[in-house]
Amino acid sequence: MMRRAVDVQYASDIxxxxxxxxEQRAAASANVVCGNLPLLKGPGxxxxxxxxxxxxxxxxxxxxxxxxAETHASQLKTRPRARAHxxxxxxxxxxxxxxxxxxxxxxxxxxxxxxxxxxxRDNCGRLLxxxxxxxxxxxxxxxxPLPAPGVDHLEKGAxxxxx
Length: 163
Prior knowledge:
This protein has helices spanning 5-28, 80-90, and strands at residues 32-39, 48-53, 57-61, 67-72, 96-102, 106-112, 118-121, 127-132, 135-139.
């Protein structure tokens, strides 16, 4: 079974619209979407704070506010303690959320997660699009989109199509 180009294009289009809306919301908050989470430290280590910025940069800040480490969302696996702590502090909640008009589907929402991904959901909660981490307008190539609205998805000659 192949992904249909029309479904992929619809998912890409609504993802781009959602990323734009989220970017505007992030700009209103100086692009900091999750500020100063205290980082758990080991014995003899300094206190660090985590700041997660749009569109997917995790910064670890030292006690004087200096950047100790900066990691793109696509590379969070290289900072397991910071990634785990960010996940624990956000508890899976969205960092940003905006309503979004979805052509053919009504109102949905665009959500920015601590993974650096943008998710587009319809009003029933169905996932319509998912970005790559830290690339809010790029459709994840592993994402399998739902059928685009208003498109006949029955192929001619398919069982039951003539009935």
